Amino acid sequence: MFMDDCLDGTIPTGSRDAEIDKAVEAWHNIAGNTQPLNQFLGMTDLEYAIWAEQPNLLSDIIFARKKNKGICTKNHPNSNPKAIHTDYEVLRTTEDWEYGQMFDDCRCRVCGALFDIAH
């Protein structure tokens, strides 16, 4: 998956935009494909929604996943990169049985946004 390849360094930082374009094209070319694009890319729903609206945040999305931080489209003045929730509280932990992952439901203390962090 695209995200896994970015996280493990298989896809270098400078090649990510071209590689995600190739991955999207490959997804379109799979006959009878019923898998959502975000799953094909290895992105959460939120990561995909942010990338679809602001593709320039792709590196921030990957950084957030690597550092297990929440991603946000709002400007957080003390964060680097600016789209990362760094000051947040965990509201509860839940398990997604379909994907076999645990998620923390969080709230950003800066912007108030609710988001999930997979672990």
Q: In words, what does this structure look like?
A:
- By secondary structure, the protein is an alpha+beta fold.
- It has one domain (2-118).
- The protein contains 5 helices and 5 strands; from the N terminus they run αααααβββββ.
- It has helices spanning 2-7, 16-28, 37-41, 45-53, 58-66; strands at 70-71, 84-85, 88-96, 101-108, 114-118.
- The chain has a 3-stranded antiparallel β-sheet, with no helix packed on it. A two-stranded antiparallel sheet has the order 1-2.
- The radius of gyration is 15 Å and the shape is globular.
Radius of gyration (CA) equals: 15 Å
Shape: globular
For this structure, the quaternary state is: single chain
Strand count: 5
Biggest sheet overview: 3 strands, antiparallel
Strand order of the main beta sheet, please? 3-4-5
Jot down its keywords.
3-stranded antiparallel beta sheet; alpha+beta; two-stranded antiparallel ribbon; 119 residues
Q: What is the topological layout?
A:
Elements: H1 2-7, H2 16-28, H3 37-41, H4 45-53, H5 58-66, E1 70-71, E2 84-85, E3 88-96, E4 101-108, E5 114-118
Antiparallel strand pairs: 1-2, 3-4, 4-5
How would you briefly describe this protein structure?
The protein is 35% helix and 22% strand. The protein is built from 5 helices and 5 strands.
